[in-house]
Automatic annotation (TrEMBL):
Keywords: Methyltransferase, Transferase. Transmembrane segments: none annotated. This is Ribosomal RNA small subunit methyltransferase D. It comes from the Bacteria. GO terms for molecular function: 16S rRNA (guanine(966)-N(2))-methyltransferase activity. Its EC number is 2.1.1.171. Residues 185-213 are annotated as: Disordered.
């Protein structure tokens, strides 16, 4: 695994082999995701939920995010994130939280004047076992995130549209067996983020299919 672009481009990230519990986002999917939202990172805090290796939050930092919060409940994964943060020398801009993502979102106080980029990559089994909890988590984010924030959700090939609040507001793209759903929130005057150049998101990366699926 490696950082795709930005300040730490090409730097390697430690990561275990993928398992049912820990399935790191592939470099291809991460590149495609950040081709869409990478230009939106400056001025935002990245929040990496179900952080795993921390690759998503680290990529966001490399591309200019002001800070990153990593939320992960597995102690071994948290240790891995700490190691990757140190390897890339981002200790002064990173916070690592040993916490359950669902509980953390319920209790976290969002600063009204600080837009965030929230990335969610739950284990795919969560969609089978806890789809209702994921929907509730997304509902909470939609209701409480500051203006000009964004949400990026990663899921498997089959993504139930019912899990996304106000489905038509999401830009859903497929990359092989992975789907990514992105929602960008308007600014205080109700306009889409000025940096968006393509409907809801920026330039599309390598993709097998694009559009709502």
């Amino acid at each position: 695994m490696r950082i795709i672009a930005g300040q730490r481009r090409g730097h390697k990230i430690d990561g275990p082999k993928a398992t049912a519990a820990l399935r790191p986002t592939s470099d291809l999917v991460r590149e495609s995701l950040f081709n869409m939202v990478g230009e939106m990172m400056p001025g935002r805090t990245a929040v990496d939920l179900f952080a795993g290796t921390g690759a998503i939050g680290l990529e966001a930092l490399s591309r200019g995010a002001e800070a990153a919060i990593f939320v992960e409940k597995n102690r071994e994964s948290v240790a891995l994130i700490h190691g990757n943060v140190a390897r890339l020398r981002y200790q002064d801009r990173a916070q690592v939280r040993l916490a359950d993502a669902y509980r953390w979102v319920r209790t976290h106080e969002w600063a009204a004047d600080q837009p965030v980029a929230v990335f969610l990559d739950p284990p795919y089994k969560e969609y089978e076992d806890h789809a209702k909890k994921i929907r509730e988590l997304l509902d909470q984010l939609v209701e409480r995130l500051p203006a000009e924030s964004l949400i990026a959700l990663e899921a498997g090939r089959t993504l139930d549209g019912e899990i996304l609040p106000d489905f038509e507001a999401w830009d859903v793209r497929r990359y092989g067996d992975t789907q990514v759903a992105i929602r960008v929130f308007p600014g205080p005057e109700g306009e889409e983020d000025a940096e968006s150049s393509d409907s809801k998101t920026g330039t599309e990366g390598p993709s097998e299919e694009a559009g709502n699926v």
